[in-house]
Design a protein that fits this description.
CATH architecture of the largest domain: Up-down Bundle
Shape: globular
Strand order of the largest sheet: 1-2
Largest sheet: 2 strands, antiparallel
CATH topology of the largest domain: Na+/H+ antiporter like fold
CATH class of the largest domain: Mainly Alpha
Order of helices and strands: HHHEEHHHHHHHHHHHH
Number of strands: 2
Helix content: over 70%
Length: 360
């Protein structure tokens, strides 16, 4: 069997799953249709792996599969025996941040000295545009207070690792992207609580110093451990190097699955409006980031980089902070929706830019 034929079968399987899902939905059979919808997304994700154009959307479809399962069968993803699955979120986030640390080296920090203008502009845009967008959208759309706080929290977090991948695909300045991600992450223990108290304080009570400590233990300490690993262990055990990206992607999928299951009832009430708002926040971040960089007369490559760094947030950190607040099912909803949204829009924008090499 040729490789192309094998992937054709996957598209056919996806079609059958989707037809079955539509049939059971119209018949009012809600006991099995969730599995068919999940099968549709997984089959399509595997089929996309064979397409250079669509490959970037494969992981997003896996996220959709996880969300489908959580929405239809939330009870399976809240507790296993006496273990609350939400208790796994913080360790998973720490592992993901550890993985980020293993990818860093002194080279990334030297780039701060080589490209201070681009990095300063990136940090300035990131920590002004996204928090302001979050506050404005949460106020205009009049969400319940805790869900509104989650939208603001997404905007107040640093940029995520996904922005580095998208910058590479978009033919942007990868070194600048990594530097902005690194610096924005290191500044997060100070800036995220400060911005949340300033903008989110009218929606929920913000405990400044506990949030500082939560960010330090979720992000900073694991990154430091990853840096130590990079210098003393990395490269000696190749299976660990290969496993870290897979663990990170699996961890993010599990986090979104647990948050979706926990906040299912709230999501059913505000889901479509929340999807719309996170989409606006995400796309407006790209747009304002790009044109702000243009205003500062940066090159096309750097403008693309700033656009992606501003628009793509560390939703995992926002989810972890929502958990430490004890509000995973409300404050944690916006980060859970924002993650898949930014993967779709980021992949689309990066692929579009990839086909248009920067002129300078």
């Amino acid at each position: 069997m040729t490789k192309g034929l094998k992937f054709s079968y996957l598209y056919f399987a996806a079609l059958l799953f989707f037809i079955g899902y539509i049939y059971l939905s119209s018949a009012g059979n809600f006991s099995f249709e969730g599995w068919l919808l999940t099968g549709f997304f997984i089959s399509l994700a595997l089929a996309f792996r064979n397409s250079a154009l669509l490959k970037g959307f494969s992981y997003t479809l896996i996220i959709f599969a996880a969300v489908s399962l959580a929405m239809y069968y939330p009870g399976y993803f809240q507790k296993v025996g006496s273990l609350k699955l939400s208790s796994l979120i913080l360790p998973l986030l720490q592992i993901i941040m550890f993985g980020m640390g293993t990818e860093l080296s002194v080279k990334e920090f030297r780039n701060v000295l080589k490209e201070p203008k681009g990095i300063l502009i990136g940090i300035l845009c990131h920590y002004t545009i996204m928090p302001a967008l979050g506050f404005t959208l949460a106020s205009v759309f009049r969400f319940p207070k805790e869900i509104a706080a989650g939208i603001i929290l997404v905007g107040c977090c640093p940029s995520g690792l996904a922005s580095n991948v998208m910058s590479f695909l978009a033919r942007a300045n990868l070194a600048l992207s990594i530097s902005v991600t690194t610096v924005s992450t290191l500044l997060a223990p100070l800036l995220t609580p400060m911005l949340m108290r300033l903008l989110g304080g009218e929606f929920i009570e913000i405990h400044f110093w506990p949030m500082v400590w939560d960010i330090v233990r979720i992000v900073i300490l694991p990154i430091i451990a990853g840096l130590i690993f990079h210098y003393f262990v990395r490269g000696r055990f190749s299976f660990i190097d290969k496993a870290m990206p897979i663990i990170s992607m699996g961890g993010i999928a599990l986090i979104i699955l647990v948050i979706t299951a926990t906040g299912r009832e709230s999501l059913l009430q505000v889901g479509l409006k929340l999807i719309l708002v996170t989409f606006i926040q995400n796309v407006a971040g790209y747009t304002l980031g790009y044109w702000s960089a243009r205003l500062f007369k940066l090159s096309e490559k750097d403008c693309r980089t700033i656009s992606l760094e501003v628009g793509m947030q560390n939703g995992g950190l926002a989810s972890g902070l929502a958990l430490t607040m004890g509000k995973l099912g409300t404050v944690g909803l916006a980060p859970a929706v924002f993650g898949p949204t930014m993967n779709i829009t980021g992949s689309t924008l990066a692929n579009w830019w990839h086909r248009r090499p920067p002129s300078c």
